[in-house]
Amino acid sequence: MCGILAVLGCVDNSQAKRSRIIELSRRLRHRGPDWSGLHCHQDCYLAHQRLAIVDPASGDQPLYNEDKTVVVTVNGEIYNHKQLKEKLKSHQFRTGSDCEVIAHLYEEYGEDFVDMLDGMFSFVLLDTRDRSFIAARDAIGITPLYIGWGLDGSVWFASEMKALSDDCERFMSFLPGHMYSSKQGGFRRWYNPPWYPEKIPSTPYDPKVLREAFEKAVLKRLMTDVPFGVLLSGGLDSSLVAAVAARYLACSDAARQWGSQLHTFCIGLKGSPDLKAAREVADYIGTRHHEFHFTVQEGIDALEEVIYHIETYDVTTIRASTPMFLMSRKIKSLGVKMVLSGEGSDEIFGGYLYFHKAPNKEEFHEETCRKIKALHLYDCLRANKSTSAWGLEARVPFLDKEFINVAMSIDPEWKMIRPDLGRIEKWVLRNAFDDDQKPYLPKHILYRQKEQFSDGVGYSWIDGLKDHAEKQITDSMLMNASFIYPENTPTTKEGYYYRTIFEKFFPKNAARSTVPGGPSVACSTAKAVEWDAAWAKNPDPSGRAALGVHASAYEEAADAGAGAMDV
């Protein structure tokens, strides 16, 4: 992952302004420690902090067309860049960067090329011939992007809020699947897949089609010129990513550079469910496995730094980001710069335990649509910013555009959790990889119950966070929370504690408005809380809050700090 900062149409184009842009761009250097670039044209500035994954030798940014009249700064990976270059044979490419195609596509097709890109990306493109510009973010929001407005009429774009929050009067998260055009004076959605209107699909379930679509999604993400691996928690999603990558790695270009043995990584408290399951999966598929441990105190000590980097006060996101943040530092120390990860599957297939209570297939499908549309505020934000804090790139095969189209076209009746038919959560995905002839995973791993990452690293992690917050936040502080924080008022001491840290780094109203709110149980949307009256009494985002569903569910009358157990 790289860091981009663009300031367009500012009144001041002095050396002092240039120095300020450089200073702000440095706030993103953790995202791109390999090189810094800056292009200035009159009152426009495009800055870039590079993490070199493809073409490390010559792909420094900003990137240009042939005569340098089109300038682009990009954060991301374009997996189909070779196919796109075939459509651009009349153009001369300066680098081997996958992102350079963006400048040439703009020359060839104008502003209507974004849907041609297959990848994860945020970019800002400046046409110096008329000083017009466009900005765009990938379909789901895997890469982060913010937009802001200065009092001088300038428009700002940045990979992280910290690079523009001090200088913009107002700013917000840039919507996924959208682009901003200065010529048209605003946003428009470029991503319009069949599932977006939430119409109920009717395509019959075909396990072979689903499996092949996912294998293709994993394989295209092995595009790399640097060492890489897979984040392996031992749950279904990360295990499938690792199993498919391990199976097909030998025939990839990456294997010719880095060998055919896959590296996998896991973190947890000693004795946690994830560590045990990940070790078993790694042994089964034959990876070189790296197991990291952390203590509750080490996680607590990292909280301020984690919240500074991930830029949210959402409780679930912070719980899960902290171990991921600690693990990413360890992975980077081994010389690895890119990892595959399993985010997105639960949203697409209704994998969270609260989906057991979905009353019908219509509400099940609509909830999956809502969850996918909100990923940029939760799991995508966590996966990107926790890893990018240490200059590590995370790629997410489940959020491949084509794979989502296949998975979201399935009649949701097949996704419904039906114990009477032996179908647990994500049965359609599990069944697609249930191959007795050439098994991908051991059966008990393939059918392991869903664990949210913050639970799976060790149940005492969440209990420890709650205990720590209890000592920091008094009863009277929580009682008066609505007066101190009238917007998204924290309802627990843990939430209040995270909010105080966030406000220290990001005190503006615009910053707190970038974080979603509302009731949630086991990661549900506010709408799905209505599925079970008992959930309103226990609005906790942990998977264990799904009363009557999780094997280690909180007792309704007991304290939420249940002891750990392996599943």
Automatic annotation (TrEMBL):
Keywords: Amino-acid biosynthesis, Asparagine biosynthesis, ATP-binding, Glutamine amidotransferase, Ligase, Nucleotide-binding. GO terms for molecular function: asparagine synthase (glutamine-hydrolyzing) activity; ATP binding. The active site is at 2 (for gatase activity). Residues 2-185 form the Glutamine amidotransferase type-2 domain. SUPFAM superfamilies: Adenine nucleotide alpha hydrolases-like, N-terminal nucleophile aminohydrolases (Ntn hydrolases). Pathway: Amino-acid biosynthesis; L-asparagine biosynthesis. It comes from the Eukaryota. L-glutamine binds at residue 98. Pfam families: Asn_synthase, GATase_7. GO terms for cellular component: cytosol. ATP binds at residues 231, 267, 341-342. The record marks 343 as: Important for beta-aspartyl-AMP intermediate formation. InterPro entries: Asn_synth_AEB, Asn_synthase, Asn_Synthetase, AsnB_N, GATase_2_dom, Ntn_hydrolases_N, Rossmann-like_a/b/a_fold. Gene3D superfamilies: Glutamine Phosphoribosylpyrophosphate, subunit 1, domain 1 (3.60.20.10), HUPs (3.40.50.620). NCBIfam families: PRK09431.1. This is Asparagine synthetase [glutamine-hydrolyzing].
